[in-house]
Amino acid sequence: MAELSGWELIERRAAAFEFEAEQEAGAPLPGEPVPVDPKEELADVLKVIRDLLGPALPYIPEIYTDEVVSALAATTVPVLDKYGIAIGGVGGLLGPEIALLALVVPLGIVTVRTHKAWKEAQTIEQAPRTAPQAPVQVAPIRAMVAVRDTGGQLSMQGA
What we know:
60% of the residues lie in helices and 0% in strands. The protein is built from five helices and no strands. The chain has helices at residues 6-26, 38-53, 60-63, 66-82, 90-126.
């Protein structure tokens, strides 16, 4: 590695100080909320949707695991940025409503399904129980059908 001259060393240090200053300028002030990462926010929205659909479609949580949702969010955010679509602030704008919806909808679905299963069980228990009846014996029927022997040769249709 070549030795740096005095001016090159000063230029590199100046660039490093400028980079640090930019980083500090972008950092939140004390007491200010930390900016939300769009990938995390989209992943959270997708997880809420997954959890809402889970009781109705039990295979959805098995397909859309946390890892799959995170990968989907990480690959979707650059496309949304490219087309100028922003989902930023959805959690802050509708946070309490989404939380309530995420709790009430799955509970409602599970409650309805449980009630239907309970109702079917009550119907089965209340059905009159009858003793199995013996099968009816039917005498075999013999029919006489005229068969023409053609000696193994096929005959024409209609002949």
